Amino acid sequence: MAPRLQGKVAIVTGGASGFGKGIATKFVEEGAQVLIADLSDEAGRGVASELGCAFTVGDVTKRVDWERLLKEATEKFGKLDIVINNAGVTYSNKATEEVTEEEFDRVMNVNVKSVYLSTNVIVPYFMENKISGNFIQIASTAGIRPRPRLTWYNASKGAVITATKAMALEYGPQQIRFNSVSPVIGSTGMTHLFIGKPNTPENRKAFESTVPLGRGSTPSDIANACCYLASDEAAFITGVNLEVDGGRCV
Ligand SMILES: NC(=O)c1ccc[n+]([C@@H]2O[C@H](COP(=O)([O-])OP(=O)(O)OC[C@H]3O[C@@H](n4cnc5c(N)ncnc54)[C@H](O)[C@@H]3O)[C@@H](O)[C@H]2O)c1
């Protein structure tokens, strides 16, 4: 079978760790040229050398970094087709009245403003070059089936899902597709914050017990969904929030 992303160029944000690393790995395996952007220089370099893909330090909350990412991808690979907005953060599980303004701003900036900036910078590039571009946001089941004590994280992912659907409508005529993928609890760099305790199998049990298939999302679960949505097999799919959650949101 031909690689499913042959000839495509993708930016994967937050690709130095967790789900983003899984997505970058799958995309490289399927023939895509990948540029990882992450705040973490050391981890990002490590993943890029392991996968044989490109890496740049970048902060998804900064417009200049998005402008540079577009420039680097197009200069290095000749074009850009796919943006995976995966980088995300949360604050530690806590009573909502205790969330600080700084925590609120950080969650909204990294999870939501990043999607605004990426589309603000890259949609004009897709339109000017008549590229049928493709945005995939890593949202969360938290955006549609929230858990208590994570209110503003839940709300940030709800915003991502709604904005993605709105842009799917708006840019359909230009053949630019917008979808989101929603994992349920996984075992990554931020899991200890969701559960408010160290990330051990024992401590994950309470969250995982609410998943009908009885486990959390893995990086390959999320990567496989992103690969499908980014490929031409999904050419008629836009505005979808694909829950990769073992049935949690049913
Ligand atoms: N882990 C879970 O249980 C879970 C569940 C549902 C959704 N998600 C979502 O999955 C996505 C990936 O998270 P993960 O679980 O792999 O966590 P992670 O902490 O392992 O990875 C997140 C990566 O994003 C990077 N990052 C953070 N802020 C950044 C910024 N401003 N600019 C660039 N890079 C930045 C980090 O350096 C890190 O490499 C997030 O959007 C998260 O909200 C995670």
UniProtKB/TrEMBL annotation:
A Pfam family matched in the record: adh_short_C2
Species of the source: Xylaria hypoxylon
Repressor recorded as keyword: no
MF annotations from Gene Ontology: oxidoreductase activity
Keywords attached to this entry: NADP, Oxidoreductase
Lineage: superkingdom: Eukaryota
UniProt-recorded name of the protein: Uncharacterized protein
InterPro entries: NAD(P)-bd_dom_sf, SDR_fam
